Amino acid sequence: MKLYDVYPLFDINIVKGKGCKVWDDKGQEYLDLYGGHAVISIGHCHPHYVEMLTNQLNNLGFYSNSVINKLQVKLAERLGKASGYEDYQFFLINSGAEANENALKLASFTNGRTRVLSIEKAFHGRTSLAVEVTNNPKIIAPINDNGHVTYLPINDLEAWEKELAKGDVCACIIEAIQGVGGCNMVTPEFAQGLQAACKKYGTFLICDEIQCGYGRSGKFFAHQWLGIKPDLITVAKGIGNGFPMGGVLISPEFTPVYGQLGTTFGGNHLACTAALAVLDVFEKENLVQNAHEVGEYLIAQLKELQKRNSHITEVRGRGLMVGAVLDIPHKEVRSKLIHEQHCFTGCAGTNILRILPPLVLTKENVDDFIGRLETVLKEV
Ligand SMILES: Cc1ncc(COP(=O)(O)O)c(C=O)c1O
Fold it and tell me: Which interval of the chain is the signal sequence (predicted)?
């Protein structure tokens, strides 16, 4: 049987990782400024993570959600404390798309409505509702195209208020910093105005923190830069440092109903152990603060590079979620970065380099990256 060929691949077989470095099967080392698509938070193969998962696997890999799982309770408590959402409730699933799917379902179960407002260029995943609120017609199958969603421009509060005033909107879903959309940032004025309008018209505000959250922005959640408190917050990616999992933080205004939501694998023992190990390392190594400090340094160094090289036209983002907008397609730049400079980066659109490193990145790593990027930008 062949693989179903949906991924355009770099011809590289990564077999080993440590911190912000990965190695291919020929022993070539790469600097990882991509983190496997913003997934690696505490660094590849962190020893504490490996030890905790190994111990858990030696005790119990999985049991179902029909029995008590104290690891889930512990994780909810720890995450509540770490993120400042101790009064919220936590529901665990297996991926980002599932997290958004369940957040949208909860909103609809609760206010009985079906309409959703989403931001132009948004990406929220590929399952039915998650893909419907994603602003990319190429990945919305006819079966998912059910007319629930209106896409509106980022930060255009008037346009959002006008739609909300119709009184039929179930939820607004936003990324405080857009990922796939290219590191476009929601402003505090827009976020606060949107939150007020949502409250006024009985609409739930969902913040998708799957990419921009979990410490990446330099605060635990990226929306915490904006002075808002959403009703529902979705997480995935960094929560498990590569162990597939997702979650929804649910405000106290929601009352759980037995059987209304559910999953076989969500919140399993290994997943919770991975997430607990991640939170241990966040605390021990001050990774949210590190993302803030090293992120500011990265942005400053990219802006310096912009002065020396006109291929960079804009630098945007926050913490370790940074977009360098180029005046040329990113394709050749990324290809040279990977094949000649041995450095992974992400991308967005046709001309944005998206930098999403593990949160353990150091200033030395930044200097190293800037050197490699400068070499490439001089050549193209
Ligand atoms: C902001 C955002 N939401 C949702 C998702 C979907 O997550 P997953 O691929 O785990 O379903 C992604 C994935 O890239 C994302 O960046």
Answer: none
Q: How far is the CA of 379 from the centre of ligand 1 (A)?
A: 33
Domain at 50, CATH number: 3.40.640.10
Q: Ligand 1 pocket, 95 CB below 6 A?
A: yes
pLDDT in tens, 49-58: 999 999 999 9
- 134 and 39 in one domain? no
Query: How far is 200 from 161, CA to CA, in rounded Å?
Result: 10
Per-residue pLDDT tens digits for 204-227 = 999 999 999 999 999 999 999 999
**Which one of 218, 250, 283 terminates a domain?**
283
| pTM over the 0.85 mark | yes
Mean pLDDT, range 309-328, rounded to an integer: 98
Cβ-count burial 30-56 (b if 16+ within 10 Å, e if not)? bbbbbbbebbbbbbbebeebeebbeeb
Are 85 and 126 part of one and the same domain?
yes
Residue 294 lies in a domain: yes
Closest C-alpha to ligand 1, atom 7: 96
State the distance from the centre of ligand 1 to the C-alpha of 110, rounded, in angstroms. 24
Ligand 1 centre and the CA of 209: distance in Å?
A: 9
**Secondary structure of residue 203 in the 3-state scheme:** coil
